[in-house]
Amino acid sequence: MPDRTDPEGAIAEAAEKYSNWGRWGSGDVLGTVNFIDADTRRAAAALVRTGESFSLAQSFDMNGPQKGWRRRTNPVHTMLDTGVDAALGNQGFPHGIGGADDVVSMPLQCSTQWDGLGHIFDHGRAWNGRDAAKVVTSEGDLVTGIEHMAAPVTGRGVLLDVGRVVGEDGELPDGFAITAEHLKATAEAHGVRVGRGDIVCVRTGRLARARREGWGDYAGGPAPGLSFTTAGWLHGTEIAAIATDTWGFEVRPNEFDDAFQPLHQVAIPHIGLLIGEMWDLDALAERCAADGVHAFFLTAAPIPFTGAVGSPVNPIAVK
Question: Is the peptide bond before 304 cis (omega within 30 degrees of 0)?
């Protein structure tokens, strides 16, 4: 572990060592998602054996984990037309037809979601070395908006159930830093490899505990998560994306005396890594433990909100 009193130095060192700037050209907008190509998708589709599917999304409703940090709230669902309106004949449609309509107001990162490449900057620099002030403005992400990810995020999913392999009773405690050694040991225990183009799902058990004990500080509080030292593993494995069942992906509290999400600061603007948070991996984990197969076909397209720096997602794993 680097000097915990010097997050600035550790971030700068990791950023230089693991940078993917220019790897896919100056105009790139996909980052590590470039590792998913037609061949990897065809190979991933061949993993489907039973056709059983799992949604890896939490529910999007008022009972979610958000408590207002950075003005993040839970979704507000409002009906515009209802069955009552139809039954009372208030809708004005001919020949007895009626309908219901609704609207949802929500921050795009309030539940199961992707962090887009315009979500985090390092000293005013966005992915691929661009000036953050010219990438994301009041009009949104003008360069790497999440809409660019709408088609390509489909491929081989790999579940690393670190909670089950390393933890007690299937869960890791808050503040547990998952190292590259933990990830490798979990992959070995599962009999699965992790490599280029994979969409890696890391289960810590934190969501299971929140469901059992209540949300508490799930959104922003202490949690298990990836150690800052995994930056080299994230870069070297050439995975396309990674998602966890926690609010912040990396371990919290962070591993430095005075820092906030330092692994994000390396992974998104420098590695160009697509990061998912608050994924529900519990049902999939139970099935993988039962059949011993931890690789599957996964599709996880964000909603293509033009210029957004993140997006809700309903990932579907098919075994």
Answer: no
